[in-house]
Amino acid sequence: MKKFSKVERNLITVVLDGRRNDYKKERDFEKVFGRNASIDLVEGRKYLLDDALFGEKGAPGVIGDLLYEMECGNIRYDVMIDALEAAVNEDWENVPSVEEALNLTTRQNDYPQVLTTFLNAYKAIHLSAKEEGVSLGDQLDSMVEEVLKGIGINKDDYEISLLEFPIKAEALNMDVVQSMLRNANWTDRNGDFDFIKRTLLATKALDERASSEGVVIFRFLQDIEALAFYAAGFDGRHHELCDNALTLYYDDEKTIDDTVNEIKKLVNGQ
Fold first, then answer.
1. Can you give the C-alpha Rg of the chain in angstroms?
2. Residue range(s) defining the domain that contains residue 207
3. In the predicted model, is pLDDT for residue 134 greater than 70?
4. Max Cα separation, the chain?
5. Do 162 and 128 share a structural domain?
6. How far is residue 81 CA from its own chain's centroid?
């Protein structure tokens, strides 16, 4: 299976984004895609599709449709490049339709806000516990570790930031957020309902521990769940659909397995 390297992805982005006119990369482009390769917007794209990637048979029609939407600013470059990679490998299941690519772009545009909101919820929970003079210790750490693991982030890599951030009365360090976004993998847990289950078990254990200490954190749980839903390949609409099932779960009116099965049905439109 052909996987685009980081260099290839960067160069393809330069070709797709005609505004860059990055002729400094001309030689790199020739090294990767061939001596006759051009980085010019029109010629470069034609060469990329007809010579470097798809050959005589040319790019499939859906790629043309996706390119049009990308040119209109409706589809992100990385979504387009993933589609090109899948099409080159004739992995048609992973070549999105236009609608799927638009939805994926919307979801990816949400990532910074979803992650920021999660980290702010973590801070708020920590400060709420501190105001009551208690520590939520292992339960809070376990929840953070489980959810961040869902986007490929090792909590230990950010241990100092995560320890300092809630203690200091200051805004979230956006450098930390940007670092996490660069290192995150938002596809590893796509469709992983076991991950959803583990996250919900961790959030409920945290909520129960907080309640036993007189700390009210229920209002922050949605922000934690939201990141878990995005990590599992869903979005805010899916999360909202599951609101009632999640409430019943926290109220002990639904078991964890029944809750996960209900979520599965709701997000899959069954």
1. 22
2. 109-267
3. yes
4. 70
5. yes
6. 16
